[in-house]
Amino acid sequence: MPLRAKVASSVSRTAAALSRAAGRGDGSVIGGWIGLKIDPDLLAHLSAGRAIALVSGTNGKTTTTRLTSAAVGVLGRVATNSFGANMPSGHTSALAKAGSTPYAVLEVDEHYLAQVLEATEPHVVALLNLSRDQLDRAKEVAMMAQLWRAALVRHTDVRVVANADDPLVVWAATPPGDPARGIKPPHVTWFSAGQRWHDDSWVCPECGSTIQRSGEQWWCTGCPLRRPEPHWVVEDEGVLDPSGAWHKVSLQLPGKVNLGNAATALAVAAEFGVRPVDAVSRLGIVTSVAGRYAQVDKDGRNIRLLLAKNPASWLEAFDMADEAPTLLSINARDPDGMDTSWLYDVDFAPLRGRQVLITGDRAYDLAVRLDVNDVPFQHVRTFDDALRAVPPGRLEVIANYTAFQDIRAELDRVI
Amino acid sequence: MSSESLRIVWIYPDLLSTYGDRGNALILARRARQRGMPVEVLEVRSDERLPATADIYLVGGGEDGPQALGAQRLLADGGLHRAVAQGSVVFGVCAGYQLLGTSFFAKGVQCRGLELLDLQSDRGETRAVGELAGEIDPRLGLPPLTGFENHGGRTHLGPEVSPLARVTAGVGNDGATEGAWRGKLLGTYSHGPALARNPALADLLLRWATGAHQLPPLDDTWSDRLRNERRSAVAAARA
Lengths: 415, 239
What we know:
The complex is a heterodimer. Chain A has helices spanning 3-21, 30-38, 42-47, 61-72, 88-98, 113-120, 141-153, 167-173, 256-271, 276-283, 311-320, 363-372, 383-389, 401-410, and strands spanning 51-56, 78-80, 103-108, 124-127, 159-163, 187-192, 211-214, 217-220, 232-235, 238-240, 246-248, 295-298, 301-307, 326-329, 356-359, 378-379, 393-399.
């Protein structure tokens, strides 16, 4: 590593340690930010010599990254940005902190995928899904797919692991090659993790025709784009691998969506030569991911934290949550997006019959939404008020990003 | 009303439903049912024929490609024009508002609109993103408009339409006026579930559709709190 990069890497680690010692944060961003100021190529320098997997998509990135790290860990030490700091400063911090490791698994914000592909030259990139998220500041969904596709055209040597159930992902993962210049399209391994949310993919990204669906199949009515045959499939409580062998997956994380994340992790690890039979037991070690799915006992209540940031992830949260009293908390601060319109893309009907409490900066937006949805609720001002309002036993908490962090802070930053 | 029940058509949810547009159909249906009116909500996809005999048509927001495609299909279908000729109500939001006019821009290209409202839209230099508020045309007798806007368009009104509101916060059409209306057609840049924050506007559409001069009041406690909170937030942001 060049001297400048060594200095930058060392300063970066020190800053991260200071940030943690001062109680100012996880230290997962600040160190990398300072390091990149000293050496803008630091991420590339830190990536050199490691076999890297990138994980990107609208939902499930953090959890899939965690599961993938566990699976790749069969082979040796893995550097990873496990706190969800998923922009280049976070990647830089994570790699600097980990020191020399043969492997790295990095969660990447979908907007930064092209940049991070360039800097890290990964062996594998996993593309999970694309759906509407914070449209007041994020790119429109179809434009995101276009950016991914354009990035992959420049990196046709990377191995792609992609979701066969999401038309936008399939299109993004299959840019045409250029035989005249000897460029082959990237090699893709397809997984099927199911997709509950379909409302961003009724229109073909290739030709604009309608996309039809029947069962798990989908196809464009105007061009050849259709669901590829997946190599990795969730089946019952396990995963079918490309050889047809079925592996039971016993996770501590709830819901079918996490079985899908486990299938993705096994598929990515297999690209490094990890056999699913060796990796599958390691997936069960993961209990919570940066507070997500964490369980805390307080005042006789067993509180479980579920993060839901956009319509697709709310549907998944309802699937994971038990039939128990449920607290919903909504903010609309900068990291959440300032627009609460997405509340109407979520059907809250699964909550009928449960005791529902609401809180957060934008509780009134939620109140109007639940009223229209015929879901009775009670508004509480604080998390403690919510605890007092429910009987002893399980309390499910479903919150969007900053609301989730607020509640996590009340519970001593549980991880 | 055209039949036994109030018929609401949500036009092309596969194309024109960027962010919570379903809310407007849900809110109209609920407010009608609470007054004892039977309601039918039809979601008509862009590969289906548009029925010409419904009472209220909703045209939602969309990205550039779907907006242009939606306008083309509506022009080819002709059902919305027949419905308007028969006196149906049309409520357009954001991209759906623009395409009711004579022309709009999508992906840098000028596209032909439905020519149902005398207005045309082009591109502003900046994108308008944030809270939108305004004093509504007094002839409509409604409390102030509140909403969230997210669009790159600027809309210029012709003499045959009236502005829906005079802007007090945000951009709307051009920083001075917001939205437009004529007869029983009304459009706004207050995007997505605009009626969630404006229940009186929902009731105006229901009155236009039913011919009722008044509707029994409903319990709007939560909407009122939401409106007050948003009004305070806009005032605080300005202070």
